[in-house]
Amino acid sequence: MGRHKNFWGLTEDSLVYAAGTLELGLTADKKKRLMDAYLVLTAFPDVKPGLEMLRKKGVRLAILSNGEPKMLQAAAQSAGISGLLDAIISVEDVLTFKPAPQVYTLAASRLDVAAAEVGFVSSNNWDIQGAGSAGLYTFWVQRSPAEPQEELGFPARHIVRALTDLSALVAS
């Protein structure tokens, strides 16, 4: 609609909508507790060791997310990966969401590299397709072998099952 609301606000609106649809009677206290849960999400077990392996190879690491900066900082802290990251990049800098191309090019500009030099990793295939369409080099973490690739014209360059598999694909 050409209007922007940050991901925190959209998440809250979605929670209120879902609770209303299901007639759950969402009180202000329940809503606050559920929203606060987004600030302490745990990462998959392979995330921290996978990032550590990449860091040892000298790879610069960043998060590029639709999330709002406060959410992203809290999630990185909660997952114990803050110290491994060179940057946390939010779509709030361009006021639009993935898969818009300007989100993906934001990573290249923030890291001061060409788009083709950005190795983009996601477990969301739609996100991989969007990054590929913007010229990024993509790695899809296909967490379930039964999960099909989306047919959007920009398939992943590499498919791995866990972040710990990435190190073998990256040159030092």
Gist of the model:
The chain has 172 residues and is an alpha/beta fold. The protein has helices at 7-21, 28-37, 47-56, 69-79, 101-111, 125-133, and strands at residues 62-65, 87-90, 119-122, 137-141, 158-160.
If you had to describe this structure to a student in words, what would you say it looks like?
The chain has about 170 residues and is of the alpha/beta class. The model has no long low-confidence stretch (mean pLDDT about 95). The strands form 2 sheets. A 3-stranded parallel β-sheet has the order 3-4-5, with helices on one face. A two-stranded parallel ribbon has the order 1-2. It contains 6 helices and 5 strands. The chain has 2 domains: about 5-40; about 45-170, Rossmann fold.
For the structure shown, list the relevant keywords.
two-stranded parallel ribbon; 172 residues; 12% strand; alpha/beta; 3-stranded parallel sheet; Rossmann fold; 6 helices; globular; 38% helix
Assign the structural class, choosing from mainly alpha, mainly beta, alpha/beta, alpha+beta, or little secondary structure. alpha/beta
Total of helices: 6
CATH level-1 class of the largest domain = Alpha Beta
Q: Work out the radius of gyration.
A: 17 Å
Quickly count the domains.
2
Taking the sheet with the most strands, its summary is:
3 strands, parallel
Percent helix = 25-40%
What name is given to the CATH topology of the largest domain?
A: Rossmann fold
Number of strands: 5
| CATH architecture identity of the largest domain | 3-Layer(aba) Sandwich
Order of SSEs: HHHEHEHEHEE
| Unreliable residue runs | none
